[in-house]
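> run fold Lipopolysaccharide export system protein LptA
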Amino acid sequence: MNLNKLTVLLTISLFNVNASALESDFDQPIHVSSIKQHASLKTNTVVFTDEVLLTQGSIKITADKLTVIRGTKPNHEMMIAEGNVATFHQIQDDGKPLDAEAKHISYEVAKGKITLSKSAQVKQLDSQVNGGEIVYFLKSQELNVTTDQSKKERVQTVFLPAQFEKEKSTDSTKSSTPKTTGEQ
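> ok
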């Protein structure tokens, strides 16, 4: 079997995974496209470069470079997206979009865990979170935000009423939604 066929088979096997985030997303295969690809059969890695797009259901990751490291067990791949700005997008079960960006995004498929670092930011409607590192758990839809204590950064929350006004149906009271930022 020639090297091109081996590369295609390795790539297909790397992305034939199921994870445990939003059920509708994790039942879908992972697809990656890019302008260039390099596979190392010896190290079980595939590196995609130039205009990289990863999709899995409603999940969409874009980057300048995506390194996929095959795990020792099925569905234990580590995907590392890097770039001037790498992005993550997902439509959640309630229909709300979640958008994130950072210079470094790692996706641990088996854990359903996205870690954003280096200029990390997550937005959902009118809410925004900035921090040194943001960890997003896909299944529980929870965020953990940390800041760099040595730089005396803090997380700040600002409540914006606009998001709930858009969702208000018959309730005449106004609600607020947090906007969280980390000073950098």
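Residues 3-150 form a domain with the lipopolysaccharide transport protein A fold fold (CATH 2.60.450.10).
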